[in-house]
Amino acid sequence: MDALDTATPASPPALTAQIVDGVLAFMAQDGVTDEAFNAQALALFAYQFAHNTPFQRFCRQRGKTPRTVKTWQDIPAVPITAFKALSLTCQPPSSTDRVFMTSGTTQGDVKGKHHHPTLAVYDASMRANFARRFMRGQSSIAMGILFPTEEVMANSSLAHYLALALQTFGADGSRYFIDAAGLDTAGVCAALAQAEATAQPYALLGASYSLVHLMDALAQQGQKFALPAGSRVLDTGGFKGQSREIPMVQFYAQLTALLGVPPEHCINMYGMTELSTQFYDNGNAVLPAVKSGPHWIRSRLVNPLSGAEVAHGEQGVLAHCDLANFNSVTTILTEDVGVAVSGGFLLLGRAQGTQAKGCSLAVEEFLQAARA
User: Fold this and answer.
1) Which end of the chain is more exposed for a tag (fewer CB within 10 A), N or C?
2) Are residues 99 and 105 in contact, defined by beta-carbon separation less than 8 angstroms?
């Protein structure tokens, strides 16, 4: 039997460092071939199969081992709900540098946990992708963050993401506008007015629901701004019951009307706690906008129960293979419905009906196998 087919104790620090260095080197390449992506994915699969016991049990039940898996598409996708029930980690939780936790909106207070022995890979993934997709070649920009700080939300991947954005790309005058008292509307308005007066581009970044609260406040006060060229907006995460629901067409039209930022500079980031890489669109002038990621993440549209890929152009549930997920599992099955298109995928919403039932059955299958 191949040595990789046998469960082994947690890897020594030297092996983990080797894995991390390999992932960072892969991410630093200027694009990769299909063969190179496949080789890296299979190497990480072998590592995770050897050191992530619940994942190994699931793979064995499906007859998937490093001997039989030949392509990244064959790596079993772990349902994201499994992160709520089990510790999916190659390193002992005690060796974790940071644990990111989900918001718990789908199962009450039950939160999924994503263990990161080091944030070096997550941070490198975020910075490189953000620089290309949001900054678009600009080295810095004054930023207003509409989300709590890392100190307030230490287990939030979004709080860390936005802190990295501000630390790495934020120009003088960048600051947070949400604290224990809530949204500092007056502070935001002062920053927007200053950007208008000085003709310096400005960026607002935060949860989609935070932007709804800001837009409601501006509309109530009868205020609007015409931010200078080069200004932009980043929203993410949807509304999650934290604000009124707004159709996407109306959401971006209202952002443009109140801030003067054209829809092509209103960018949505699609990410999740269970991933270490984010997807972006190129603006929202046309909806739904095409989402895509960097060369170290690839996506498939699948039948959630069988894992089989659906025909191109048909709706399926998104499964992502994220090579920055070195410590947990590279491949996850989401509960998001999409359709593959040229250049990426369209995100259509949460699984409903038959697709939602398929996701639930996939979770049951995983948990039964992992706890056997």
Assistant:
1) N
2) no
